[in-house]
Amino acid sequence: MTNAPNISVASRARRAFRDIGRFRFMSNDRSLSGAAFVANLGHGSPIGVYENPNGVDPTHVVITDQALGCLGTDQERWIRFDEIDSTHGPHNKDVHDAIAVVMKSGARTQLRIAGGVGRFKDVFSFVRFLDRVVEDQRER
After folding, report:
1. pLDDT tens sequence across 71-122
2. Where are the domains of the chain?
3. d(Cα 106, Cα 101) in Å, to the nearest integer?
4. In angstroms, rounded to a whole number, what is the distance separating the alpha carbons of residues 87 and 2?
5. Is it true that the peptide bond before 5 is cis, omega within 30 degrees of 0?
6. How far apart are CA 83 and CA 135, in angstroms?
C-alpha cells in the first residue's frame, strides 16, 4: 500500500468529466434537484448527472460519492463503488458504448454511455473514472 493522498470521488469526477458536455455537476446546475432527491435516498451525496443521447437506456447516470445510479425506462439500479471488482471498457471505439462492470459477488452488469463528439467517446472517460475510484476504494 502506498501513502497516496485520499482523493475524493467528487475530485475524480471533476477531473474525468469537466470537459464532457453531457455531464452536469450539481454544484453548477440547481435544476438537477430531482437527481439529488433520488441520490439522497441512501445512495450518498450527489455529485452530478450524465445524460445519454435520446433513445439510450439508461437515460441518466447519477454519480454520488458512494455509487452511480442508472435511471431510465428500465428499473432504476445503483452500483456501489465499494462493490465493484473490475470494469472493462469497449475494445472498438467506433462501435461500442458499453462498460462491463464485474461486482465482487461475481455478478456482471453493463452500463451504456453513448455520447461523445466524433471519435472522442464519453464511455472512455467513464471507464477511467470508475477504474480510479475502484482503485481508491481498494487503497482505503
Report:
1. 887 678 999 999 999 999 987 756 679 999 999 999 999 999 999 988 789 9
2. 9-139
3. 10
4. 22
5. no
6. 12
How many CA atoms are closer than 13 Å to the CA of 68, on its beta-carbon side?
27
- What the block records as the C-alpha cell of 107 is 455478478
Question: 133, 140 in Cβ contact below 8 A?
Answer: no
Is residue 110 within 8 Å of 126, Cβ to Cβ?
A: no
Amino acid residing at 93: K
- Asked whether the beta carbons of 23 and 12 are under 8 A apart, the reply is no
* Ramachandran quadrant class, 90 (left: phi over 0; alpha: psi -120 to 50; beta: rest): beta
Q: Which residue has the cell 441518466?
A: 60
Chain-centre distance of CA 45, in angstroms? 14
**Residue 12: band (very low, low, confident or very high) from pLDDT cuts 50, 70, 90:** very high
Contact in structure between 90 and 97 (CB atoms under 8 Å): yes
Query: Which of the listed CATH numbers 2.60.40.60, 2.30.29.30, 3.30.450.40, 3.20.20.140 matches domain 9-139?
Result: 2.30.29.30
